[in-house]
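Table S5 (text form). Sequence records supplied for joint modeling of the two-component complex.
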Amino acid sequence: MNKIFIHEVGMRDGLQVEQQIVPTQTKINWIKELMETGVDIIQVGSFVHPVKVPTMADTDELFKYFSKPENKKSNTILAGLVLNEKGLERGMEAGVEMFCMGVSASETHSKKNTGMTTDEALERIIPMAKNAKAAGKEVQVSVQSAFGCSFEGEIPRERVFNIVEKYLQNGILNISLADTAGHANPIQVEDIIASIYSMNPDAKLSCHFHDTYGLGIANCFMAFKHGVKYFESAFAGLGGCPFTAKASGNVCTEDLVNMFNRFDLRKDIDLKKIVGIAKKAEALFGRELPGKILKVGLLEY
Amino acid sequence: MNKIFIHEVGMRDGLQVEQQIVPTQTKINWIKELMETGVDIIQVGSFVHPVKVPTMADTDELFKYFSKPENKKSNTILAGLVLNEKGLERGMEAGVEMFCMGVSASETHSKKNTGMTTDEALERIIPMAKNAKAAGKEVQVSVQSAFGCSFEGEIPRERVFNIVEKYLQNGILNISLADTAGHANPIQVEDIIASIYSMNPDAKLSCHFHDTYGLGIANCFMAFKHGVKYFESAFAGLGGCPFTAKASGNVCTEDLVNMFNRFDLRKDIDLKKIVGIAKKAEALFGRELPGKILKVGLLEY
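The corresponding structure-token record, covering 602 residues in total, follows.
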């Protein structure tokens, strides 16, 4: 089996939904520790309006800090999420290494999030992605609500394939399928992943599942079985709404890596260190977070 | 796809490890409500020494209660776990409809649990199973620690296959593979299930996973994909040690059935009612239990 890659999204998808703002210095410490764990990509933050999303207000500052060689000693790729041209501009200036951007396969979700239809959003995102690539940056485009939508329910697979096709036609192979609402199920994952690889076997697919209904790891496993190599997950399983707390977060990084460890994959990742960061997050937020290994310890043999 | 069957083990595997003893009348109420949900088998309790396991002291009484036709209005099968001949005798007298019994694939686990080696335990269990069958009872035999052991770590698959073979040779096809420690991973599940079906395609396999490391549902899914039709799970995800609480329970019934619902299977089971019982268990034990749907509500569309 080939190597798989862990894209740690806790600092962005995890922290952004928290009520409590994590101090910039704490974020710096956690990012440094995450770099030491051996995860491949760390999503540092998103370039959104600081008034609208105060938890992400220090994203520029964080990237600028890690742009200094003395502050970044590893090869970990630091990624940033951008929603529009303004964000892209800020990200370029701040030193983002990998840009993440995307559109939603759900019209309702797209409209609510961006004020645009999916097609309108695509017309805006594709040139942004091309510009970032032309500037020598890594770029990952996403299909949000790819497996279902909390507003619309079922999302016809053709909507997902149409977006993926447009990305591929524009030479953007690095595509993330995001299960924003956590509706994905493993049979659907098999179907969608296999169909996309049959469209283009060179697609570099990433999966981003939420564990809302407890199917996150099963979905990752089926994606893995069908050839997906990139997985987005959050330490401690962060990312749920703090009020329904334990259930709706991202797939938990340390639990996911523990599964891959059982297949003799990614034993180089320091799970103890990830659990250490997860425990600091629990202490800071003052509540139990959903990760399993966080509670029962590592399975080592 | 064929029908799958839910064997609800919360009343036994869930309640037995709790510090708090659930009053018999509460157990009766919960069992009645579980019968109304449409699950296929309910494991009511185990016939162990009442002093050793006080949470199970009323098992005889519960079976006697439900043996009266006026107290049992559904076709749900009521199962009881027996560990030895004395337990079998008690179960026969109390009116058990389906007997569950088994041996551990781990020598250390077997010795600690029964004082016998795996082979010695098998020599005792097989005649018990035959006697119960001869008495017209349904019988399910199990392989405990089939996927790993918290004392021994890895359990060679041959140890599992040897036990299964002995069961099959003795005409006992109804075999449960129990992941007592929660060490199973989906690739291992594929391997073991496929191997057993190649030994005997008529084996009537049941899977009993614990969610210690978050792989419970992924394991169920792979077992399902490879033809397993019987699943043992506990409402609310009960079954963890109350001290490491949320992580180590059984696979959660309502979360598992929710997954099957996504495949249009078992939509006849009343998930709202199961969640209702799960909420009563949370109230009684005064702590949050691990089930996901319990927190976020049903996914309906």
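Note: Chain B touches chain A through 35 residues (CB under 8 Å).
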